[in-house]
Amino acid sequence: MIGIESGLDAELERLAREDLYRTRRVVESAQGVELQCGGRKLINFCSNDYLGLANHPAVVKAFQDGAARYGVGSGSAHLICGHGRAHHALEEELAEFTGRDRALLFSTGYMANIGVISALTGRGDTVFEDRLNHASLLDGGLLSGARFKRYRHADAEGLLDSLSRTEGRAMIVTDGVFSMDGDLAPLDVLSQIAKDQDTCLMVDDAHGLGVIGDKGRGIVEHFGLTQQQVPILVGTLGKAFGTFGAFVAGSETLIETLIQKARTYIYTTALPPAVAEATRAALNILIEDQWRRENLNDLVRRFRRGAEQLGFPLMPSNSAIQPILIGDSRRAVEIGKRLLDDGFWVGAIRPPTVPQGSARLRVTFSALHDEQQVDRLLESLAKSISQ
Ligand code: PMP
């Protein structure tokens, strides 16, 4: 036998050689469009805090009041004694916000996705997933024990073809806004296919909720679809909501099934109640502050106009996620470093997070950026890409 550790150093060296080594930077300040990092001020273009709520005074206050009232830890899983008033109220408010019968909190989006897919499908079933779905959805499909089929990105025809040749129960699973591309799933077509093929549709709208749709209700609002047409909706709270955690929203039967069967719901500690209180405050702001979505959309349009004029290879995205395709991993990392030298923090995303040969700069926007910051980013990008 050979110890597992024996190959680890060689594997780390390989990752470094291929420019795929991941590193972290320590942030010294609160989250926001300006971050303090390594003793320097950086303009943050890589966060998912799309509406600028992570450090909003009312959200911070709700968190502090929640901790003063309920303490920090929730003490146990929801099904033991961890399900508190704050969690319950948040679930009711999220159900109302999404226009669904009920909502159920999970501790993270990763756990929600694994929990839902593996609770609802198993051996003999088939899970169909978009090739570019988030890792947690792909892992959920793999862990479920169901047959696992991936279709070409947004290829509804290919999906239909494969689905119509499949026996037994099936489920279609898709990101709403694709996390590394920023484009929207063709949810209207997918929901029609699901209906025609008598199949269930699940959408993970982690990057759409709060941002897409007039009222910020995400991709389901954008396409004007109902709970019946998209029976399973997953939302995460660590992005536009600015807090932490996730939820699933759908019918009474769906939620009761998840409570009975989703292992990542049953066997894990409930979110701190103060996080639920902070999220309730964030939800109110997200609903009320229409200007945040408007600002965000204006900034995205301004960026795309400028980037097109400069000839950057943009992707077809109108969301807060605006990738610039670079291709080569080393080049993406180098450009990222040049941007950092100029005071801009943009994520350089490489395989296996994105397909081979499609490394990219993933620029993300916040409602709290201003036009000048966007213009300066464009200037720095032009300089860094042309070097
Ligand atoms: N779904 C998508 C589409 C995501 O991008 C992410 C995380 N970035 C998740 C789920 C996981 O959510 P969480 O961070 O709450 O685990």
UniProtKB/TrEMBL annotation:
<dbReference type="Pfam" id="PF00155">
    <property type="entry name" value="Aminotran_1_2"/>
</dbReference>
<feature type="domain" description="Aminotransferase class I/classII large">
    <location>
        <begin position="41"/>
        <end position="381"/>
    </location>
</feature>
<dbReference type="InterPro" id="IPR015422">
    <property type="entry name" value="PyrdxlP-dep_Trfase_small"/>
</dbReference>
<dbReference type="InterPro" id="IPR004839">
    <property type="entry name" value="Aminotransferase_I/II_large"/>
</dbReference>
<comment type="function">
    <text>Catalyzes the decarboxylative condensation of pimeloyl-[acyl-carrier protein] and L-alanine to produce 8-amino-7-oxononanoate (AON), [acyl-carrier protein], and carbon dioxide.</text>
</comment>
<dbReference type="GO" id="GO:0030170">
    <property type="term" value="F:pyridoxal phosphate binding"/>
</dbReference>
<comment type="subunit">
    <text>Homodimer.</text>
</comment>
<dbReference type="InterPro" id="IPR050087">
    <property type="entry name" value="AON_synthase_class-II"/>
</dbReference>
<feature type="binding site">
    <location>
        <position position="207"/>
    </location>
    <ligand>
        <name>pyridoxal 5'-phosphate</name>
    </ligand>
</feature>
<feature type="binding site">
    <location>
        <position position="134"/>
    </location>
    <ligand>
        <name>substrate</name>
    </ligand>
</feature>
<feature type="binding site">
    <location>
        <position position="22"/>
    </location>
    <ligand>
        <name>substrate</name>
    </ligand>
</feature>
<feature type="binding site">
    <location>
        <begin position="109"/>
        <end position="110"/>
    </location>
    <ligand>
        <name>pyridoxal 5'-phosphate</name>
    </ligand>
</feature>
<keyword id="KW-0093">Biotin biosynthesis</keyword>
<feature type="binding site">
    <location>
        <position position="236"/>
    </location>
    <ligand>
        <name>pyridoxal 5'-phosphate</name>
    </ligand>
</feature>
<dbReference type="InterPro" id="IPR022834">
    <property type="entry name" value="AONS_Proteobacteria"/>
</dbReference>
<comment type="similarity">
    <text>Belongs to the class-II pyridoxal-phosphate-dependent aminotransferase family. BioF subfamily.</text>
</comment>
<keyword id="KW-0663">Pyridoxal phosphate</keyword>
<dbReference type="InterPro" id="IPR001917">
    <property type="entry name" value="Aminotrans_II_pyridoxalP_BS"/>
</dbReference>
<dbReference type="InterPro" id="IPR015424">
    <property type="entry name" value="PyrdxlP-dep_Trfase"/>
</dbReference>
<dbReference type="InterPro" id="IPR015421">
    <property type="entry name" value="PyrdxlP-dep_Trfase_major"/>
</dbReference>
<comment type="pathway">
    <text>Cofactor biosynthesis; biotin biosynthesis.</text>
</comment>
<dbReference type="GO" id="GO:0008710">
    <property type="term" value="F:8-amino-7-oxononanoate synthase activity"/>
</dbReference>
<dbReference type="GO" id="GO:0009102">
    <property type="term" value="P:biotin biosynthetic process"/>
</dbReference>
<feature type="modified residue" description="N6-(pyridoxal phosphate)lysine">
    <location>
        <position position="239"/>
    </location>
</feature>
<keyword id="KW-0012">Acyltransferase</keyword>
<keyword id="KW-0808">Transferase</keyword>
<protein>
    <recommendedName>
        <fullName>8-amino-7-oxononanoate synthase</fullName>
        <ecNumber>2.3.1.47</ecNumber>
    </recommendedName>
</protein>
<dbReference type="InterPro" id="IPR004723">
    <property type="entry name" value="AONS_Archaea/Proteobacteria"/>
</dbReference>
<feature type="binding site">
    <location>
        <position position="179"/>
    </location>
    <ligand>
        <name>pyridoxal 5'-phosphate</name>
    </ligand>
</feature>
<feature type="binding site">
    <location>
        <position position="353"/>
    </location>
    <ligand>
        <name>substrate</name>
    </ligand>
</feature>
